[in-house]
Design a protein that fits this description.
Layout (H helix, E strand, L loop, with lengths): L1 H30 L3 H10 L5 H26 L7 H18 L6 H28 L3 H24 L30 H18 L1 H11 L1 H6 L4 H27 L11 H11 L7 H21 L6 H14 L5 H27 L1
Amino acid sequence: MKNRKLAFESLRSVLAIAISLAIALVTILLVSDMPGTALKAFLFGPLDSMRHFGNVLEMMIPLIFTGLAVSIMFSAAQFNLGAEGAFFMGAVVSSFVAVQWTLPVVIHPIVSILIGGLTGAVFCGIPALLKVKWGASELVSSLMFNYIAFFFGLYLINYFLRDPNAGAMVSFKLLASAKLPYIIPKTRVHFGIIIAALTIVVMYFFVYRTRWGYKTLLTGLNSQFAKYAGIKTAVVVISAQVIGGFIAGAGGSIELLGLYRRFSWQQLPGYGWSGVIVAILARRNPAYVPLAAFFLAYLRIGADLMSRQSDVQNEIVAIIQGVMIVLIAAAGFLEKAQYRMVFRDATRDLTNVGNTAREVGG
């Protein structure tokens, strides 16, 4: 039954993606004066050179971290949207370490990433504590904390780390010892993609192969039953959001150390919100997060190339994302087909049981 449900949910996701892509392609055909060029750039542009494909992998890295962070929090039924603020603050604090601390080449980025992760854990952990202590909605409080993270982070950069000779509100240059090395020639794909892959493996193991993961999933499915079973749900609620915040904060640090020479963000980067889309596409399963992140990154790079080479703007991706989320999140999408499948399988199983009983009795 579990395998059947997984197969059906996968089918729903594939159909949702196919329908949203079909709507986007029809829209392009209707509004563009050069639909052939637009479609070619959108669908195949990311594959036409190593540089463009490298752009997909570069964007995929932060999406993996925020998508994984949101997936972990959603697994415990905690709708904490603080991954955006955690990602931003992780980069802010990491820039302090990367600018002001002098450490060996290998140790420097490790320390920067760990401190960035701890900062993200604090920012996502506070809404969790408010939820457990006073019953405050983690959805509302985490959204507010994103703006606290944004303005507090800019305050720190402006008053303590700003380069007065840069002509803009940016930090001093990051020390070379803190930078993550590029690993694919002719691209900016950096060592962060290796860290992302290892993080996926570790979190999949913890979620599906450990007692902590079982407690998290059970709490997410039915917190009251988990409580009656002796699970300390308050600890699970807090730990899931703290771990998610750590991953998001570390992702912000890795993004900064991998692609930037200095901290220069003047607004929230948006990867936390995109992480929600990745988590929904991945069905909160860490193993599917890289696929969802790659798909979303591919769409965005393809849309960007399309906007440069044709008369279609890259906002077409917003249409695809919106339709996908609506269809995947809609409980009624293919509901009748699911009921028919369950009824058919149940009838077949009962028939097999009856036949076996008659054979034994005979």
